[in-house]
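name: query_chain
kind: protein
chains: 1
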Amino acid sequence: MNGRIIILGGGESGTGAAVLAKRKGFAPFLSDAGEMKPVFRELLTQQSIEWEEGKHGRQLFKGAVEVIKSPGIPDSAPVVQRAKKKGIPVISEIEFASRFTSATKVCVTGSNGKTTTSSLIYHMMKKEGLNAGLAGNIGTSFARMVAEHDYDYYSLELSSFQLEDIVSFKPEIAILLNIVPDHLDRYNKDILNYLNAKFRIAENMGKEDAFIWCRDDPAIAGEMEKRDIGASLFSFSLDSVPRQGAYIEENRIVITTQTNKTDMIMDELSLKGRHNVYNSMAAGIAGQLLRIRKEVIRESLSDFQGIEHRLEPVLKIHGIEFINDSKATNVNSSWYALESMKKKVVWIAGGIDKGNDYSELIGLVREKVHAIVCLGKDNTKLVDTFKDVVSTVVETSSMQEAVRSAYYLAKNGDSVLLSPACASFDLFENYEDRGRQFKSCVRNL
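structure:
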C-alpha cells in the first residue's frame, strides 16, 4: 500500500482521482462537505473506496501522505488550509493523473473556446486513427480516463482552477486561446492572479514541447513580452504573420511549423465566426505538430460538427430561430455569440454575475438586439446596463418563463439567443442543465 490519500470533493474530478488512487495501490478517502450525486456515491461504493459527505471529519488528515483537491474548491477554503498547516502536499487531480501515463498530452486553456478547440483536436486525432482520449474539464476526468484506459494521446481541456495546483505537470503541446476577465470572484478581483493561473500551463515545459498562443489577444501578448516560456513558440493571428504558427493570406488559413506547411480556404471551415477561426487555427497548429496528415487536418476543420450548448441551433418556429449558447458563462463569450448573429436578436441573459462588466456589449446590443429577457435571481446589473439601450427589457425567474417571453417578443425572421454571460448556479445545476432546459422548453412551445 502506497499510503493514505485524501481527496477533497466528490464530483467527476474527485471520484476519478479516488478510482485511480485505488487502482495504483493507495488507500484513498474521499471527503465532500456537501451532498454528492447518487452516481458518484455508487461508484465509490462499487470500488470499495471509503467516503464521507456533509462534513470534513476532524481526523480527516490523520496519516495522510497527500491531498488531491477538486478544482471547485479554492485554496482559501478552511479544509485546504488545515492540510497545508499540517505540511501535507496539496495537488490537483490532473497533477496526480499525469504521474501514471506516458501519453502525449495536448492541453487547451483560455477564457473561451476551450471545449470547442479540445474537441476539434480530438476529432482530428480520431480521424487520423490515433489511440486517443478526450478528458479534463470536459466529460470524463483525466484521472478516471487514465485509470480505465491506456491511450497514447490525450486532448485535455484545462481550466484555470485545474492548473492552480500542479507541481510537475507538463503538456507536450499547450494552447492558450485568449484571456478576458473571468472568475474574478475566485481571484480577489485581480486579473493578474487569473493570468498567472492560466500561464501555469507552460511553467514546466521545455524546448522539446510546443506552446501555442494567440498573438491578437492583448493580455496574452503583453504577458509574453514579460515571461520566459521554455517551450518552442507557435502563435496564430488574423492580423499579422508569425514566423511559426497560423495566419490569414488571401482568404486562406496558412499553418507553418518547421518544414511543414498546410493551407485551406477559410470558407471551408465548418465553424463560423471570428472566434472559431482562432479555434480552428490553434487546432490546426496542434494537428501539424502531431504530424497528422494535411488532408486529415483539412477534413477535420471542414467537417467538425461543433459541441452541445455552444451556438447550437435548436428549432425554427414560425420563422423564429432558437439558438442554445448556454456555455457562454462570461461576457466575452456572449460578445462572440452576438457578433456572429446575422438576424435581429431577442437575447436571453443572466445568472450568477462573476464580477462582469457588461458595458463592452453595449455597442453590439444596440446594433443587433431589440429585446432582452433577463433570467436569474438578481437581474439588477443587467437591467441597469441595458434599460436605455434597447426598448424592451423583461425579468424572468424560470427557463419556461424566459422562453415564453422571448417567443412572445420575437418576430418572424428573428433569432432567440440564450447566451447568458453568467454562471448558472442560481437556478440550474450547471450550464448543461440550463441548456437542456432551454431546448426542452423550446420544443414544448
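note: The mean pLDDT is 92.
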